[in-house]
Amino acid sequence: MKVSVLGSGTWGTALAKLLIENGNKVIIYGITKSEIDDININHQNLAYFKDDVILPLSLKATENIKEALEGAEMVVLAVPTIAIRSVLNQIKPLLKNRPYLVSVAKGFDSESTKRMSELIRDVIPLSMRQEVVSLVGPGHAEEVIYDMLTLVTSTSIDIEAARKVQEIFSNEHFRVYTQTDEIGAELGGAIKNAIAIASGCLVGLGQGDNARAALLARGLAEMIRFGVVFGGEVRTFLGLTGLGDLEVTCNSRHSRNFQAGYEIGLKDSAEEFLKTNKKTVEGIRTAKIVYELAKEKNIDMPIVESVYRVLYEKEKPSEVLSQLMTRRLKDEAE
Hints:
By secondary structure, the chain is α/β, with parallel strands linked by helices. It has two domains: 2-180, Rossmann fold (3-Layer(aba) Sandwich); 183-325, N-(1-d-carboxylethyl)-l-norvaline Dehydrogenase, domain 2 (Orthogonal Bundle), CATH 1.10.1040. The protein has helices at residues 10-21, 33-42, 65-69, 81-91, 116-123, 141-144, 159-169, 182-204, 209-229, 234-237, 240-251, 256-267, 271-276, 282-297, 302-312, 317-325, and strands spanning 2-6, 25-29, 60-62, 74-77, 100-103, 133-136, 150-155, 174-179. It is globular, with a radius of gyration of 20 Å. The N and C termini lie far apart (49 Å).
């Protein structure tokens, strides 16, 4: 299959390598010339990976989006959520042969607060594509690139589309399950980023395993509480795109959201980090969107609200943590 991967960052590069190894013809589109040249000439992407990562010789990269989409039967959207709308508008007039559109971004559209699959459907009509598929779950590109064992889900309201993506991506070290609860899968993948910032803050503040275990448990409760209101299924949040993704993002050194929280916790303030950060940290925008949606629907989200207050109201993480611990005592099921 001819696959176009839009995005030359960590996830785009790792998935492109995987797809090549699975026997597909793959081209990466990116906007940074140095990365494109590195892939084409040196068969590496040193902007994101160590020099022991050698990419397949047949993997090509281009700065020309029209060239990238030529003959594409599947398009993998591997750019940050903030760029998805712009990229969709660019590719819309270039799509032919109704390709599969696979979203691997986890978050919300800033303009509409819609999930990624909803945004894709809004911009690109079904007559121009197959049904949207979200490839989500506990997967860090930094491990996938080394063929380390990874399990994710292919999620779509069209089970046949989900199975097609499952077939294309699966191999002995990258196992893909299918499911149809698009709402639950995408909300889980988004909300866990905000909770991972809280996890990093805890470590930065000097807290230990007890606190982080509690954060995961209570964070999962918030994800379920929020997700069910918007139509997600409880069982989805107990699977790979919920508990699985939450655990890895809250605990892994590869997680940008955890790293961001850690830096914020060390300084006991988000101000310096927000001024100097140049990396994509999806949880920052997600915290704001989820906080506002939760307020609108009257959903109790104390952890997400705390992250919001640290990021957007300049409150100290240590003080917010103290307030969380001294909230009204209640039953765990509440």
